[in-house]
Amino acid sequence: MKPEHKLILELIESYLEKYPSERFGQALFNLNINEFQKTTDPRNPNYNIRDIHGDNDLDIIERIQNRLDLIQSRKNN
Fold this sequence. Notes:
mainly alpha; globular
């Protein structure tokens, strides 16, 4: 296992320990691991899941950390 894999798993584990009522798939979306496809027209949202197959592990870690920071900042307000 690469260090990046271990970090991703640790971030997911920590999140699920804080929010045990969330389903695993829900956590993947809430942590921005899985995402919906972006749309150019906000009047026509696209609810198709974006293929993350080519995403770099470091990009995924950055998305998770950004989401965790956002969650924390909302709690502090």
